TrEMBL record:
Species assigned in the record: Velocimicrobium porci
Database matches in NCBIfam families: PRK14072.1
Listed name of the protein: Pyrophosphate--fructose 6-phosphate 1-phosphotransferase
Residues holding diphosphate: G13
Keyword presence, Kinase: yes
Pfam families: PFK
Intracellular or extracellular location(s): Cytoplasm
Biological processes per GO annotation: fructose 6-phosphate metabolic process
């Protein structure tokens, strides 16, 4: 039987777990004994079009190297944000010509919503031209907003970082006996999953974050001031608030400080920030006490020092499973996590047609947010808690973690 060849790419924003999925694909391909060559495309589709293709079979010759890759943050192969145009048959034809020249049988792409759009368009075009190449999407995003999967690789570690950081901010806030308000802005354009993870910053010693506002609900500034005032008057002097970067008022206007930055990526996503700073100014003017805002921004994306071992193990498993799905003849699919019903947390790997996931967003259900709209409830806590379990043991050199160099 003729040995197969595959190629792997990574796309979108970095996470702690995306290289674990890459390691899983490599490990699965080697273990199957069905592949003579495993290629990687540097910087995703952009690199493929520029023939920036590397032979991963020659680079990962030992299990130790695969394990080091599993514990390296960000994206070993680099990334891109490249939007394919279905009407641009010249580019699509060029991509397939390159894949045919390298005798590629299976194409694996690891990424989020926009990456699944790429898998959709390539698999559809491949079917139009009767190409035998199989296109498999492997999910990844800290936003946790992919439709069709219980959660996404990378989210658990980002959630663990948010929970840990909010707990430490809480300790910082608690040392003074004076009224203060701290507002933490967390990534989340339309989906509030990551901001909701702030609710996990609760221990026997600390009561937890006081207020959480997600973009799924309209944000009311007057209600926000009332919520803060109630806590200051009846509960404690230090108030800790978590807000999603994408909170909007009932008219759909973003709560932000000043003008939009104007930065737009290839998929039309506008760079927004400033919700925390805007609320800082409003609260300072209203309460006349110490108010500060913190924007966490990208810090949780490559936080391997605070990674969830559950996240990394599942990411490796889903990458490894992708190889099996390709060998079974699947095409135009995205791998998924399916939570197994029961008292103990377990997941199994499933698949979904990429048409059912690409270009869609999975938002936080209204019933997972409290009635007042300023926090989450027990259903969300139960959903989140298993995803942040376990700590990753890292190698250190010179006092800092030792990772593989990125390509």
């Amino acid at each position: 039987m003729k040995k197969r060849r595959c190629i792997i790419g990574q796309s979108g924003g970095p996470t702690v777990a995306i290289n674990s999925s890459l390691a899983g694909v490599i490990d699965g391909a080697i273990a199957s004994s069905m592949y003579e060559r495993i290629y990687g495309m540097r910087n995703g589709i952009e690199g493929l079009l520029d023939l920036q293709i590397v032979n991963l079979s020659e680079r990962f010759t030992t299990l130790d190297l695969v394990e080091r890759l599993r514990k390296t943050p960000a994206m070993y192969l680099g990334s891109c944000r490249y939007k394919l145009d279905t009407n641009d048959t010249e580019t699509l034809s060029k991509i397939f010509s390159i894949l045919e020249n390298f005798q590629i049988d299976d194409f694996f792409y690891i990424g989020g919503n926009d990456s699944m759009d790429t898998i959709l368009k390539l698999s559809d075009y491949g079917k139009q031209i009767d190409s035998p190449i199989r296109f498999i999407g492997i999910p990844k995003t800290i936003d946790n907003d992919l439709v069709g999967t219980d959660h996404t690789p990378g989210f658990g570690s980002a959630a663990k970082y948010i929970a840990t950081t909010m707990l430490e901010v809480m300790y910082d806030c608690a040392i003074y006996n004076k009224p203060s308000i701290t507002i933490v802005e967390i990534m989340g354009r339309n989906a509030g999953w990551l901001t909701a993870a702030a609710a996990l910053a609760k221990t026997e010693a600390m009561e937890g974050v006081d207020l959480i506002y997600l973009p799924e609900l309209a944000f009311d500034v007057d209600q926000f001031l009332n919520d803060v005032d109630y806590i200051l008057q009846t509960k404690k002097k230090q108030v800790l608030v978590a807000v999603s970067e994408g909170i909007k008022d009932k008219k759909g206007n973003y709560i932000q400080d000043g003008e939009i930055s104007g930065q737009v990526d290839a998929f039309g996503h506008i760079s927004r920030s400033g919700a925390g700073k805007a609320l800082e100014k409003i609260a300072a003017n209203h309460f006349q006490c110490k108010v500060r805002s913190v924007e966490i921004n990208v810090l949780q994306r490559s936080c391997m020092h605070c990674a969830s071992e559950t996240d990394l193990k599942e990411a490796f498993l889903i990458g490894r499973s992708a190889v099996g799905k390709a060998l079974e003849g699947n095409n135009g699919i995205m791998l998924t996590y399916e939570r197994v019903p029961g008292n103990s947390y377990q997941v199994r790997i499933g698949t979904v047609d990429v048409h059912e996931s690409a270009n869609k967003e999975r938002l936080v259900p209204r019933e997972w947010i409290n009635k007042e709209g300023n926090h989450v409830n027990g259903t969300m806590i139960n959903y989140l808690t298993p995803l942040i379990q376990g700590e990753v043991m890292l190698e250190y050199k010179g006092g800092v973690p030792s990772y593989l160099p990125l390509m």
